[in-house]
Amino acid sequence: MSTRAERTFGDLQLNGEPRVAATNERERPLLVGPLPDRIRHRFPIFQKRVYINSCSQGALSDSVREAYNRYLEDWDERGAPWEYWVEKSEDARRAFARIVNAEPDEVAVTTSLSAGLSAVATGLRYARRSKVVLTDWEFPTVGQIWHAQESRGARVVHVPADGDGTIPFERFEQAIDDETAMVSITHVCYRNGAMVDVPKVVRLAHERGALVLLDAYQSAGSLPLDVRELGVDFLAAGVLKYLLGSAGLGFLYAKRDVVERLWPTATGWFADKDIFEMDHRDYSPAATAQRFQSGTPPIPAIYGGVAGMELMEEIGIAETREHVNALNSRLIDGLDDLRAQRATPRRPKRRGALICIRSADAPRLVDALGREGIVASSRDGNLRVSAHCYNSLDDVDEVLAALERHRKLLA
Ligand SMILES: Cc1ncc(COP(=O)(O)O)c(C=O)c1O
Q1: CA-to-CA distance for 290 and 254, rounded, in angstroms?
Q2: Which atom from ligand 1 is nearest to the alpha carbon of 111?
Q3: Residue ranges of the chain with pLDDT lower than 70?
Q4: Helices 299-315 & 317-337, crossing angle to 10 degrees?
Q5: What is the b/e burial string over 207-216, where b = at least 16 CB atoms within 10 angstroms of the residue's CB?
Q6: pTM confidence score
Q7: Model pLDDT, residue 15
Q8: Cα gap 104→110, rounded to integer Å
Q9: To test the ligand 1 pocket, which listed residue (117, 186, 190) has its Cβ within 8 A of the most ligand atoms?
Q10: pLDDT tens-digit profile of 332-376?
């Protein structure tokens, strides 16, 4: 295992000058700035490992650790401070609203992406419009939740992808029609890192009268998100990955003018128009996005999640996107030199933070890298390498050097 405690500090700046990421003419060189120098010390895992697996989970920061400690202290000192804790969940709602450029009353605080999506899926009636259009890039939970609605009359149609990490737009044109209730798409695919041209699909769906739900779990925190620019009706995500939180906290954005068109039957008392009414003889969901909530908010995860989101805001999501694009240019050039096959498109506009590399045995490759102190992951026969704000050029070079040593495990 490599120990690289102090070495990574300052490794991106030579005499204050930014280094150039791309090593040849294949891509326009992108400048790598000093972002990790500023923040890496806040993520202790880098004292022991090259952590480049934020598509699975973000690295633990000092502030998220402190937030969890604070939760235990508050519990210990105050007993059951539920008014304070409910207000904390409003902090979470406001923080996520800022991250996606929504209003707080357009955000539901949930326990997972699945919980918000289930509230939406059970809220549709599938009467006049019964079709739900998905892509073949969806995370399993998304497909499963929509298919579960088949017993309520939904018809689920999958838009197939090509092997080169693209979905030709004509496929959406063929699938979306005037019987389509919902187009449910992922922003960045968890299996190949490819990014969907969301505004283009939204325009088409809206022209044909369908709503659009975006799974932004693999993009939230790694690139700037703006629900107004994207045009989506719903956006679901969680804090586990690039928002630096932990499991147990998710969000659902719902555009204000669509909220009351849905009547969720996956619900609970925190979805009520007045949770203090405590009326067990009636179901009157809130007129705001709160109608997509369910039971008691996940308070411990909220402490950690708010700290993670605030840390990402402080670090800068736009700067992170530029930084990671520069690291990934270097990674892609290095992969080309190794003649490794990529599942992720080359153009930065067509990919998220995640780069997927085809492997002859991806779990073995993950294990081999793990033994050398590099934490990555695999899905679908691909090695997944996902850099974030804290990763450096040295990290990328260590990954490339390890892949060269384990060349036999590349496809
Ligand atoms: C793209 C995507 N969607 C959804 C999920 C899962 O969401 P949850 O477990 O919060 O329902 C993940 C988690 O890995 C994901 O990567």
Answers
A1: 9
A2: 10
A3: 1-33
A4: 80
A5: ebebbbbbbb
A6: 0.93
A7: 32
A8: 14
A9: 190
A10: 999 999 999 999 999 999 999 999 999 999 999 999 999 999 999
pLDDT, position 180: 98
The CA-based dihedral angle spanning residues 7, 304, 218, 310, taken in that order and rounded to the nearest 10 degrees: -80
Task: Please give the pLDDT value at position 164.
Answer: 83
Q: State whether the beta carbon of 110 lies less than 6 angstroms from ligand 1.
A: no
Contact 8 CB / ligand 1 (< 6 Å):
no
Q: Report pLDDT for 30.
A: 55
Res 404: pLDDT: 98
- Calculate ∠ Cα 391-319-2, nearest 5°: 5
- The CA 142 to ligand 1 mean position distance, Å, reads 8
Cα(397) to ligand 1 centroid in Å equals 29
CA of 220 to the centre of ligand 1 (A): 11
Q: Is 250 in the pocket of ligand 1 (CB under 6 A)?
A: yes
Nearest to 383 by CA among 27, 39, 53: 53
- Asked whether 218 lines ligand 1 (CB < 6 A), one says yes
Task: Establish whether residue 186 lines the binding site of ligand 1, counting it when its CB lies within 6 angstroms of any ligand atom.
Answer: yes
